[in-house]
Design goal:
- This protein has 1 helix and 10 strands, in the order H-E-E-E-E-E-E-E-E-E-E.
- Helix content is about 15%, strand content about 40%.
- The structure holds copper (II) ion.
Length: about 130
Amino acid sequence: MLLVVIALGLVGCSKDDAKAKKPAPAAATTSTGTVGSDGVRKIAIEAGKDGYVPDRIPGKPGEKLMLVFTRTVEGECLAELKTPDGKLTVLPMNAPVEIAVTVPADGEVRFACGMDMFFGTIVAQKS
Ligand SMILES: [Cu+2]
């Protein structure tokens, strides 16, 4: 009986540890992604069960970005992407889709799922 209690106690502990260690989604910075020879910065974005990760992408005003969206969750919600210019694009499961975006001179632009439930922002960061 004592052994059972100890075993349960251990399980409880390891569960708590797992929860505490669950990493928060890494926040994107102005250096997230890779810059190609064309000067365009490529940033991978997952469209999954938590929405878009990362969902806030800072960039230099006027910087050209290539957002590479990959949908990893079934369902209609994230199957359509509304790009900052308002166009709807289909995101197939597990197939990367590239969307070119220019960071605005000021403020932010937004992308969203086809229903505007999930969204992400591209934010001009001046320094
Ligand atoms: Cu949606």
